[in-house]
Amino acid sequence: MAARSKIFVGTFVHSKTLGELEYLHDTVVAVDGSGKIVAVESNSSADAVSQKLGWTTDEVDVTTTKTAQFFFPGFIDTHLHASQYPNVGIFGNSTLLDWLNTYTFPLEASLKDPAKARKVYSRVIRKTLAHGTTTAAYYATVDVASTNLLADLCLQAGQRALVGRVCMDQLSPAYYRDESPEAALAATRESIAYIESIDPGREIVRPVLTPRFAPSCSAPLMRGLGGLAKERPDLPIQTHISENKNEIALVRELFPPESTGAQDDSYSGVYDAFGLLTDRTILAHGVHLSESEAELIAKRGAKVSHCPCSNSAITSGAARVRWLLEKGVCCGLGTDMSGGYSPSVLEAARLAALVSRHVAMGGDDKAKLTVEEVLYLATRGGAEVVGLQQRVGAFAVGMDWDAQLVGLSTVDAQGEVEGIAEGEEDGNVDVFGWESWPDIVAKWVYNGDDRNTRKVWVKGRLVHERK
Ligand SMILES: O=c1[nH]c(=O)c2nc[nH]c2[nH]1
């Protein structure tokens, strides 16, 4: 049965450009049964738009914003490890390389148990949807069956996702690694074939090539994955880069330029030498990149997933997002659970703003990111990072309706929250009625959470509703 058409009425906020949000008031957005936006009309009404489209009122569901509510594009989480979700907040004082061995590899390996994988993956999907994440670029584990299960569960829940089986054939405990480069490549092909079989049109889920990071992959595996990337130019690629200084030193030691044919001894040069630095590549972190690396990344059209929560939690460093943007590198945001402790892209946006202020305090005042800029990274920028900028990240005819209804509390003359029933939650953001729309949005960015995420849709389907 085809889904019903939908009409959304009221205030819509989305990014026009990096520095500018557009506020569309008294606007109607019509979404057809396939989840595509077919009309965006300002100063109109649901009836007028329905009539124009030849839709009768009884075949359309209408959702209208109330005071201090607005529709916002769904968030794009450009980097997170679904398999690490149970560990959020558990990192002690570790830094990357000991964090991987102490906390991460044992947990990931344990998800070979299908019951455990189902429990973890079901929860992370529900949790991120509840925070407004409509698209997620997931790392699963080395295990094919549980990676495929993650794709199944995303498809069932309706969360748009890139799902990657993790490739790693060296420098991790023997209980958690690919047996050989050949085995890694075969398992990768198997997982790709499965994910493509469950959603051949790539409407919701798609596979992504996932070399964990250079230290985890032997040269033959990197070469093989580069070959696969060439054979399948439609596949995105995700990996980590230049997150931690010890990691960078390790890459230099493992891949001297004379062994790869790279131009220099940079981390980016290693991926480039193996054909993995492409315009489909999502590079997580990029904290300590050099000038020439940023230039190479821009030249190749590779993208950066900025992960301010993780970069702070496991003490990796403060990535220079303004500098990357000025170099022409496209950036989005990643929660990077569980290096990052929060499932919320809104939190990532807030932390991106704060970390940029730390960069500014280091002497580069123009490094500061505005509310408008971090929301761009969370939506349109992220969409470009995962290669879906034609479909999601904004409200325009021809794009899919991937959206969230944000609801903030309004305060009455007695200082009480209006329209709230006994026992209902109100959230942290109080709107007094005199704020401008940019101020309301700023209050949401700095104080909002999942209590403000009232409804979430992916491709027109309601995938979360806060009761
Ligand atoms: O933040 C990170 N999380 C990981 O799981 C990982 N693996 C390699 N490098 C990594 N960085």
Automatic annotation (TrEMBL):
Top-tier EC class: hydrolase
Entries under CDD domains matching the protein: GDEase (cd01303)
Keyword match Hydrolase: yes
Keyword annotations from UniProtKB, A to Z: Hydrolase, Metal-binding, Zinc
InterPro entries, alphabetized: Amidohydro-rel, Guanine_deaminase, Metal-dep_hydrolase_composite, Metal_Hydrolase, Metallo-dep_hydrolases
Catalytic reactions on record: guanine + H2O + H(+) = xanthine + NH4(+)
Annotated cofactor note: Binds 1 zinc ion per subunit.
Single GO biological process annotation from the record: guanine catabolic process
Cofactor field: Zn(2+)
Pfam families: Amidohydro_1
Gene Ontology CC: one annotated term: cytosol
Amidohydrolase-related domain span: 72-463
EC number per UniProt: 3.5.4.3
The protein's annotated pathway: Purine metabolism; guanine degradation; xanthine from guanine: step 1/1
A GO molecular-function annotation: zinc ion binding
Protein family (similarity comment): Belongs to the metallo-dependent hydrolases superfamily. ATZ/TRZ family.
Protein's job: Catalyzes the hydrolytic deamination of guanine, producing xanthine and ammonia.
NCBIfam families in alphabetical order: guan_deamin
UniProt-listed PANTHER family: GUANINE DEAMINASE
Name of the protein this chain belongs to: Guanine deaminase
Species of provenance: Echria macrotheca
